[in-house]
Structure to design on (1277 residues):
């Protein structure tokens, strides 16, 4: 499954990727909305709108096509998948109302699960699991807070340990924590 | 009435029937029934000797009722009707029982079941025909005149064609001139003929033709009456200029001090308050735009012909026609909601119609292509195809069908007369599926028009210029392309007046607002209402050629409709059977799909021309005052009883089947020799909305264990909303029967499309299994229902 | 008195506390009560945590929403990202009872429950609907006349419009309306609807790409001759402000376009002291204050 190799042997190299996306997506989004990916006409409105597509090798239309074709591995392992800023410009304009951005989020969920993930994203995740926030509160930030006249520590999980405990219970219950720790361990 | 003397004839169909149905047994059983004087079987009932056998029997035994068990009535009913008619038998006294498509062809391997079913069905038909009364069709004169609404190329063509046949035409156009959109174009694809050169002679013919009466600035206000005899009210807006007197000298126009935006030039040019849309306009006369006229009187002073009347007022006239043709055409969808295209936000983003005017030598710039923003030179033009078409997000779901071609046309023409003009067409799919269209496209490529595959994502203004962002999907790379002028090709949508007009004409529109065809394939220029036809873009986006073909078709249909001079009125209509019961509550009026029922002297009156015999009104009447000719209460009850009483079948399922769509589907199941359980016994009805709760309860009381309703979908069947009412009613009956201790699962409703015929087998098998699992209804329950039914009739 | 629970998120309290302070001062000015949403966490970020595990994202969002519900108050936020997550989660859980049931099964482990009775409003909605443009206009103490403002909507306040419900995402005008009400002038620039570049985990995962988008945006702002770039989102604010430093350090590109959040701009016009609005806490100094005579 090499994307530099032009030939695709449909019978050997493709799977029902869309079915997987739909199944996974139905947990969160209405299925009939996600299903519109089947009606993509490859018009390119999405990609023509994409701020990332202009400067990186990220190609949303091609991902929709690969999904239709069932080139799952190729899509999941392509690092460019992570260049979408989730700006929704494509989704807003798609004439077939394909939920492009949400589909990208779903595909990323699958990539994350399969271990195709970026180090900084794992660090953000660890931070969240440990503090309830995606970024740390540093001393300089505390100083800033004092200067503008708000409490030194914000009234969030940083102030309330029992609240942090709650968040940690949730990330454990959803299995997120386990996923992140495993990926961190694997490096 | 004379005592029924019934003859039963069963056809063997050369084994097609008799290989499965034991015809000897059928004959033997039938001959034992009361009132049956003759029972015979024969190899081919439809053959000459077969028909002769029936005719001779009628003569010899003085039969007055005939039941023929053979193939589907859709096959030979008309022929049998004619032949027994020759022996003095009224069509209402003939019943056809379908024992081929509904027995032998679908119960092969179950000879016993098929035979039993045939006997039951024939018994039902005998009972039904015993209770029939003779029916006679009526007649009405047809008014030999046609109203054509809309004077575009479609309306013009239809009007001329009808007029040529010697029939009077009233052509109603809301603008001051006929010509429609085509009058705005310089040339037309794919031949690049000069549009004016081919259109204006036709417009002239309209003006000249003594059979055509033209009303411009006119609008249809009301339509009353019935197909064949419509009374139409038309409102005429004031023109301010006497068409007969005006010689088109233009003296008025030169002195008029008011300048306003020209709608004919799509807002790109200016015109005076007194004007002529274009030199070849028909009628060839000036017109005052009273919205902007200040009534200064200068024009009237100057007019050498004293043609001007500034106090002209609105008028109303009434005409009488037999048929109507709708040809109100289209407009372009408003793209203002597409912020990404900057339409209405930047002057150099225009629509293709504006472009037609801009490139027309008779247009606002005399054919010079300049930037609307500053009059500056245009070196590069970008076309945006599918700008809102094929877009469920913000636009229209359908393809507008002509934009690929007219964009190509405009580009090609400009390449021809403007040296070095750079033209790019951004498209999704280049749709050129028409005679000579692909060649036309190729020609444009040769002429240097550039095509880029990829729908435009956004347009960014850059001073007087516009940057278009899109993907070149062939390369898979984003592009930016800078233009002086961007031309949008928006969806073609039905002329907005059609919403009101459709209400006035009582014709349904489809989900996109176009006029719904009677049949999308086989009757494309007829509307769902008799005597009303439609052509041109009002039935869907199309090019001129197709619009013209349709206009010819619509004209032919209208002529055909009028040529009969007298219209046959089929006799099977609803009527007020017990006038003293009707208290004019109006429940029936609510449900009638054709608005045939009205109230006159505190009773309902059913117009037998408007009524289409669906039967929906009959159960609606709380007083049981209505009945249906051809399938009366008495006949229906008799048929139900006839089928069920004496049946030896273990499980008995009645299926009431809508007689056109669903019945055809059922026939197809037979033709394909599919197989389903022989427990199913069909009673055809015009629509299952004909059925009362009483009929259903009676069927259960008389031995039915399950009842099915197969109904046509609302937009497919002949009776419009009656089909939808049917579903509603049956759903209610499901609740009602529980009160009589019958489980609601014993009723089954299915909407059936003709192509569903394969699925019917599944439906029958499923229901049969469900009913078998439930088992027969207990005798006690049946008796109880019967008791309650007779109590209800007593009170 | 109208009240909201103030959902802080991460960027505002931990990097740009000036935005937090400005919000409190401005809301107080308009008599809108802001409750502390004690114990709130990261929203969690829509493009980051939503990209990793949507189920986890939904559950944690539901907890944050449930905190508001127990205060019987809608949340409000000054961040498009927090808004995106919490408004979408609210929408999903309001529309689909079966998803709500499943989420509440998890929340029951921490003795919480969310019924989608309360939700979230973006601070723009508070300005536009609770306070109103007329009221804003009539409350101006220090007109911002002469100030040329490049308006940036960010992505997630408007999009996806079918869920957000604020009308066209291609022709928005609410921010321009507010800017005009304050006496300032919204300037047209080509890339007005372009994303800031940071979302979707791109800032963390591919900073160079994020900065390239930011640079494209800022160049367009510069070309239009704006005095500052206005945003309604702490994360966009962060990207534009911090991003300019990074662009300078990594690519040697200098823009020096001051960045101002909506609450800060309103605060300025209400006559609130620039310092306490946190205007001096940005990386890029607020040079426009000179123009306004407020330095
Ligand atoms: C930009 C453009 C370029 C085109 N170029 C070509 C081409 O080159 N070749 C080609 O084959 N096709 C072309 N077409 C398609 C072509 O215009 C249509 O096929 C054709 O005009 C259809 O004719 P029509 O009579 O059905 O409708 P219309 O031309 O729209 O005429 C309808 C008429 O009905 C009138 N009307 C509307 N409502 C009422 C009412 N309530 N009462 C009375 N009158 C009413 C209107 O005023 C109008 O006169 C083009 C279309 C566009 C948009
Ligand atoms: S815009 Fe929609 S239909 Fe067009 S290529 Fe992208 S996903 Fe497919
Ligand atoms: S949402 Fe992602 S794919 Fe879509 S336009 Fe924005 S960055 Fe590109
Ligand atoms: S001046 Fe009179 S005759 Fe001449 S065009 Fe005008 S209305 Fe017609
Ligand atoms: S009366 Fe009206 S149409 Fe005539 S010249 Fe004056 S403004 Fe023009
Ligand atoms: S005709 Fe061409 S441009 Fe018009 S809607 Fe169809 S595909 Fe699009
Ligand atoms: S409801 Fe049907 S049967 Fe009754 S009057 Fe109307 S068209 Fe005739």
């Amino acid at each position: 499954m090499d994307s530099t190799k032009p030939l695709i042997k449909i019978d050997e190299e493709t799977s029902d990727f869309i079915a997987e996306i739909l199944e996974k997506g139905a947990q969160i989004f209405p299925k009939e909305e996600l299903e519109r990916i089947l009606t993509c006409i490859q018009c390119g409105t999405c990609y023509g709108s994409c701020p990332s597509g202009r400067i990186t090798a990220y190609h949303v239309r091609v991902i929709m096509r690969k999904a239709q074709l069932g080139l799952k591995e190729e899509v999941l392992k392509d690092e460019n998948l992570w260049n979408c800023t989730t700006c929704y410009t494509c989704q807003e304009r798609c004439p077939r109302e394909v939920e492009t951005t949400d589909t990208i989020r779903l595909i990323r969920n699958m990539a994350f699960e399969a271990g195709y993930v970026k180090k900084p994203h794992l660090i953000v995740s660890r931070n969240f699991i440990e503090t309830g926030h995606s970024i740390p509160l540093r001393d300089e930030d505390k100083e800033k807070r004092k200067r503008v006249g708000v409490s030194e520590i914000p009234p969030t999980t940083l102030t309330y340990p029992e609240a942090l405990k709650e968040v940690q219970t949730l990330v454990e219950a959803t299995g997120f924590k386990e996923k992140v720790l495993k990926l961190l361990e694997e490096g | 009435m004379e005592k029924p003397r019934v003859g039963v004839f069963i056809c063997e169909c050369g084994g097609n029937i008799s290989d499965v149905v034991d015809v000897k047994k059928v004959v033997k059983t039938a001959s034992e029934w009361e009132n049956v004087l003759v029972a015979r079987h024969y190899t081919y009932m439809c053959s000459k000797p077969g028909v002769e056998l029936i005719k001779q029997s009628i003569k010899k035994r003085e039969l007055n009722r005939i039941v023929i068990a053979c193939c589907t009535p859709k096959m030979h009913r008309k022929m049998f009707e004619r032949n027994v008619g020759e022996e003095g038998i009224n069509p209402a006294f003939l019943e056809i029982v379908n024992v081929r498509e509904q027995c032998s062809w679908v119960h092969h391997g179950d000879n016993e079941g098929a035979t039993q079913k045939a006997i039951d069905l024939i018994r039902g038909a005998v009972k039904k025909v015993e209770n029939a009364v003779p029916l006679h069709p009526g007649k009405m004169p047809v008014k030999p005149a046609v109203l054509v609404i809309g004077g575009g190329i479609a309306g013009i063509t239809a009007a001329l064609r009808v007029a040529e046949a010697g029939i009077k035409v009233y052509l109603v156009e809301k603008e001051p001139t006929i010509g429609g959109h085509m009058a705005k174009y310089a040339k037309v694809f794919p031949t690049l003929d000069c549009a004016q050169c081919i259109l204006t002679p036709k417009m002239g013919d309209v003006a000249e033709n003594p059979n055509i009466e033209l009303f411009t600035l006119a609008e249809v206000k009301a339509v009353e009456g019935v197909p064949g005899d419509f009374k139409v009210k038309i409102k005429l807006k004031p023109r301010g200029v006497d068409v007969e007197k005006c010689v088109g000298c233009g003296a008025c126009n030169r002195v008029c001090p008011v300048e306003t935006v020209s709608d004919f030039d799509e807002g790109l040019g200016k015109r005076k308050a007194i004007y002529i849309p274009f030199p070849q306009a028909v009628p060839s006369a000036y017109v005052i735009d009273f919205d902007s006229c200040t009534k200064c009187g200068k024009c009237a002073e100057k007019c050498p012909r004293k043609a001007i009347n500034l106090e002209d007022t609105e008028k109303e006239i009434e005409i009488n026609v037999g048929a109507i043709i709708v040809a109100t055409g289209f407009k372009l969808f408003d793209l203002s909601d597409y912020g990404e295209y900057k339409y209405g936000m930047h002057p150099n983003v225009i629509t293709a119609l504006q472009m037609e005017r801009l490139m027309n030598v008779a247009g606002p710039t005399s054919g010079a292509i300049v930037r609307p923003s500053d009059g500056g030179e245009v070196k590069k033009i970008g076309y945006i195809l599918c700008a809102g078409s094929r877009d469920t997000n913000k636009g229209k779901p359908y393809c507008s069908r002509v934009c690929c071609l007219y964009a190509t046309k405009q580009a090609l023409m400009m390449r021809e007369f403007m040296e070095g003009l750079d033209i790019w067409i951004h498209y999704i799919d280049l749709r050129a599926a028409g005679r000579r269209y692909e060649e036309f496209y190729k020609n444009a490529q040769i002429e240097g028009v550039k095509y880029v595959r990829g729908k435009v994502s956004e347009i960014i203004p850059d001073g007087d210029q516009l940057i278009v962002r899109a993907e070149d999907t062939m390369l898979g790379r984003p592009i930016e392309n800078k233009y002086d002028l961007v031309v949008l090709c928006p969806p073609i949508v039905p002329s907005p007046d059609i919403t009101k007009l459709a209400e006035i004409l009582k014709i349904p529109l489809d989900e996109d607002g176009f006029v719904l065809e009677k049949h999308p394939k086989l009757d494309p220029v007829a509307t769902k209402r008799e005597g009303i036809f439609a052509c041109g873009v009002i039935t869907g986006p199309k090019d001129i050629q197709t619009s013209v073909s349709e206009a010819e078709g619509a004209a032919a249909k209208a002529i055909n409709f009028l040529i009969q001079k007298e219209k046959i009125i089929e006799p099977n209509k609803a009527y007020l059977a017990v006038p003293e019961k009707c208290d004019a509550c109006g429940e029936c009026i609510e449900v009638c799909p054709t608005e045939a029922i009205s109230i006159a002297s505190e009773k309902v009156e059913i117009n037998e021309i408007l009524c289409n015999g669906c039967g929906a009104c009959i159960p609606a009447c709380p007083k049981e005052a209505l009945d249906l000719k051809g399938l009366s209460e008495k006949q229906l009850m008799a048929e139900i009883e006839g089928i069920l009483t004496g049946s030896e079948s273990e499980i008995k399922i009645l299926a009431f089947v809508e007689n056109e769509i669903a019945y055809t589907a059922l026939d197809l199941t037979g033709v394909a020799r599919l197989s389903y359980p022989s427990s199913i016994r069909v009673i055809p009805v015009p629509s299952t909305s004909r059925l009362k709760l009483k009929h259903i309860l009676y069927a259960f009381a008389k031995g039915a264990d399950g009842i099915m309703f197969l109904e046509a979908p609302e937009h497919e069947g002949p009776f419009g909303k009656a089909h939808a009412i049917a579903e509603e009613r049956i759903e209610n009956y499901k609740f009602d029967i529980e009160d009589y201790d019958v489980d609601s699962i014993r009723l089954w409703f299915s909407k059936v499309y003709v192509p569903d015929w394969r699925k019917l087998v599944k439906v029958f098998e499923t229901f049969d299994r469900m009913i078998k699992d439930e088992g027969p209804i207990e005798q006690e329950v049946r008796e109880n229902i019967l008791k309650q039914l007779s109590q209800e009739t007593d009170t | 008195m109208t009240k909201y629970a103030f959902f802080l998120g991460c960027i505002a309290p931990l990097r740009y506390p000036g935005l937090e302070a400005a919000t409190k001062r401005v809301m107080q000015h308009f008599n809108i009560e802001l409750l502390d949403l004690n114990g709130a966490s990261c929203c969690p970020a829509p493009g980051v945590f939503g990209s990793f595990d949507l189920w986890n994202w939904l559950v944690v969002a539901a907890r944050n929403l449930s905190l508001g519900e127990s205060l019987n108050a809608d949340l409000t936020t000054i961040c498009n990202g927090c808004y995106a997550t919490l408004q979408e989660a609210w929408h999903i859980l309001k529309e689909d009872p079966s998803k709500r049931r499943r989420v509440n099964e998890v929340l029951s482990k921490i003795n919480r429950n969310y019924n989608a009775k309360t939700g979230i409003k973006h601070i723009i909605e508070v300005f536009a609907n609770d306070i109103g443009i007329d009221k804003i206009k009539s409350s101006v103490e220090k007109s911002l006349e002469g100030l040329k403002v490049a308006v940036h909507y960010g992505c997630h306040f408007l999009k996806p419009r079918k869920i957000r419900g604020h009308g066209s995402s291609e022709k928005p005008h609410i921010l321009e309306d507010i800017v005009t009400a304050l006496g300032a002038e919204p300037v047209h620039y080509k890339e007005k609807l372009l994303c800031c570049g940071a979302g979707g985990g791109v800032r963390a995962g591919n900073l160079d790409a994020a900065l390239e988008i930011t640079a494209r945006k800022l160049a367009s702002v510069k070309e239009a001759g704006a005095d500052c770039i206005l945003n309604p989102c702490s994360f966009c604010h962060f990207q534009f402000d911090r991003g300019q430093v990074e662009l300078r350090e990594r690519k040697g590109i200098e823009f020096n376009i001051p960045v101002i959040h909506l609450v800060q701009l309103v605060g300025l016009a209400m006559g609130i002291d620039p310092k306490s609005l946190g205007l001096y806490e940005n990386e890029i100094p607020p040079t426009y204050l000179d123009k306004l005579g407020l330095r």
In short: The longest strand of chain B covers residues 218-226. DSSP finds 22 helices and 40 strands in chain B. The longest helix of chain B spans residues 111-130. The mean pLDDT of chain B is 95.
